[in-house]
Amino acid sequence: MHREINCLKRKRSSAGKRPSGGSETKMKVVTISLQPSFSVSDIIRLKNERKTMKIKNDVSESDALTISKSASALGVHEFSLFSRIQAGDITAARLWSGEMAVPISELERLSKLSIYSLAVPPDKPETAWSDARLGIKEESGGLMRAGERQKFSVPGGQSGRFTDSEMKGYRAAFSVIADEFHSLGELRKQLEKPAKVIPSPEKEICTSQLGVWQVRSTLLNLGSSDILLCHKQNEFAVIERFRDNVPYAKANGIAEILLERNDPRELAATFNANAKHTLEFMASNEVATAQRVIWGQFQEHRPARLMAAISERCRLAVSDEETISQTQSVGHSNSNKQSRNGGMRI
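The structure assignment produced for this chain is given below.
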């Protein structure tokens, strides 16, 4: 039997000093956020211990990293950070833009390394996404507004049509969150169709911290980790198995228990419900990121209306309404086909 014991420990590096606050530009925005629709009692619990989210509002942007950069620096998926923020295991910060971030001091605690020893990614270069990939459609006709025809439509809700000038803001904002938005959809598919989740190659989890657990099934593939349903005698647990050499795993072990229950069905259902709440949290943060772009660069083009469209699209991406809508659409299409075929004579 192969056993993997991870006892690697690292001392916190004292080299260098934390960047000073310096001068920073504060941007006043109108918040149109997608609030996660869950109560405190629904938050993910670690070993059945009830905790609440801890969020600081007095952290400067120079003393924190966005969730995207923090996840990359620690070698984990954003989902892993958001779920732990919800569980109260990671203290987060809310930036002026409304975006969630992780204080540098918290990153150093999680990695047991100086921030200067972590590979913090640079800002993402601007990517020009095509209208087709962004879901933007150009239609004929449309009313005039400010000398421009409102001929563009976007997915989600009843946002109406937009002018070319307004679409510049939508393109810029949604291009920034497009990758994360796509990831939301992929994770949601895994939660809705567990039978199609790619099984982890792991047959057991064996660490000095957790002991030996047998893997029953894979609940979620995150790329940088797998979330597994495991058992040990009459105990059942949801365990996240990280890749061996990432900073978070080196500091905290290659596996962590997220939930424990006596009933595996109840445990899987509880994880699934909590994971959907985490996706709502992630979608809310994407709205805040888009808001920073639109209110910062496109204030003259009805930013509130653009934000309403993006907010609704992100909400639908993690909502059961999207599945219902798609099912109804397919049913309506099939009904039309049957109706047309019914009138044919061969």
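Interim note for the steering committee: The longest helix spans residues 264-297. The chain is about 40% helix and 15% strand.
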